[in-house]
Structures are given as C-alpha cells and as structure tokens.
Write a structure and sequence with these properties.
Elements lengths: L2 E6 L3 H12 L4 E6 L2 H10 L4 E6 L1 H6 L1 H4 L3 E5 L3 H10 L4 E4 L4 H38 L5 H15 L6 E4 L7 E7 L8 E4 L4 H9 L13
Parallel strand pairs: 1-2, 1-3, 3-4, 4-5
Antiparallel strand pairs: 6-7, 7-8
Helix pairs in contact: 6-7
C-alpha cells in the first residue's frame, strides 16, 4: 500500500530534488501543494503519512503543532532562518541543502516504523485491558454456566455483533453441535444445530482455524 505524502514548498531547488526523489519510488503517493487553503483542507479530510515543508516560509504557514502529523523540514540556503523555524516548531527531522536522497528515505522510513510500533503497542494495550477485564469478570462467580455467559457477553461488548454464542461439539461428531451459551439470554441453551446448514462452522472444524465471513450473502 502506497504511503501518502504531502509536499508544501516554494523553493525551486528543493522542489526539483523532491520531484526527482519521488519519481522513481512506487511506495509513496506524493501530492504537491501550492495553495495553503487546499493543503489544510486535505489535511483534515485525508491526513497523510508525512508532510514535507520548506523552511522557514512554508513551515511557518503549516503550523506543525496543529496538524499532529510527522513533518520533515527542507532547509534552504537561508540556513539560519530555516533552522530557527525548525527549532521554533520542534521539528525532529530536517534536511539541509545540499539534499541527500538516502537521508530523506531514512527519515520517511523512520516515520513508518514509528507509526507501526505505536499501533502495535496500542493494540497490545487494548488486548491486555480486555484480558484483565475478562479475568476480573470470570473471578466473580464459580458457576460454569454463568462463566460461559459472561464470556460471550464480554465478547459482544468488544465486538459489535448481533449474536454471539459458544458451541459444543462431541468428539467424532460431524453432524450436530449444541449451543451451550449465548449472550442474548440465559435461558437459551442446549439448542441443537445441524452443522450442514452452517458452512462456516464446518470449515472451522476442518481447518482448525478462525473463519471470517466478509459477506454473508455471497459467501458459500
């Protein structure tokens, strides 16, 4: 998947460098902006992987602290003014003239790795919180039927589903399954299902893997 990058720069040399850099790289979907209003509108509706802005003029106009997005500053020959702008806005990544392609590639890759790491940590945190909540819930009772009910109810709280049930299938059974718990009601239990009418259950039993049905109308 191509990573979107927005470029807002008015310096001829840096623009030439950036166009040449992105021309041979298929992993990025770059958009060059000359109009600040159009850039700000696009930042709100479809935020990119990173912003590249000329420093000092364009960088000051973008106001990186308001975008909350990774920014790379292209410091032109006005190094003193450009670096003052970089420091002012707390920019971690910047390139100095003469620009280097490997340097820019490294900075863009670093953004991607940081984003992936942050997303992984967030997901792990969510998973741990879910496990902690479920453990606390299960420890509140010793009734096995109540435990099963609490499990399906917690799953339905986490995943927005209309139905959530736990099935029991006897060893060697290929035809029928029993519903032993469902979050819809305590009273619904020990219902018998004909597995042949539920191809997703058949597939799960055969493959011993999770089965995801993306479209119930089209999926066989």
């Amino acid at each position: 998947m191509k990573k979107p990058v927005f470029v807002y720069d008015t310096n001829g040399e840096s623009l030439e460098f950036l166009k040449e850099f992105f021309e041979g790289r298929s992993s990025y979907n770059v958009t060059f902006f000359t109009n600040l209003k159009e850039l700000r509108k696009k930042l709100k509706s479809d935020p990119p992987h990173a912003i590249i802005a000329g420093s000092p003029t364009c960088l000051d106009r973008v106001c990186p602290c308001e975008t909350n997005l990774p920014v790379i500053a292209m410091v032109s020959k006005e190094v003193a003014r450009g670096m003052r702008s970089v420091v002012k806005h707390g920019i971690e990544y910047y390139l100095l003239d003469p620009y280097n392609k490997d340097d820019l590639e490294y900075k863009l890759t670093s953004f991607h790795m940081k984003n992936e790491c942050a997303e992984t940590l967030y997901q792990e945190k969510e998973d741990l919180e879910t496990v902690a909540k479920l453990t606390y819930t299960l420890s509140s009772t010793l009734d096995p039927e109540e435990v099963l009910y609490l499990i399906v109810r917690k799953i339905s709280d986490i995943i927005p589903v209309t139905r959530c049930s736990i099935l029991s299938i006897s060893f060697g059974e290929n035809r029928f399954a029993k519903v032993i718990s469902t979050f819809e009601s305590h009273s619904i239990k020990h219902l018998t299902l004909d597995i042949r009418k539920y191809p997703e259950i058949e597939k799960a039993l055969k493959t011993r893997k999770s089965v995801i049905v993306k479209d119930a109308m089209k999926d066989p």
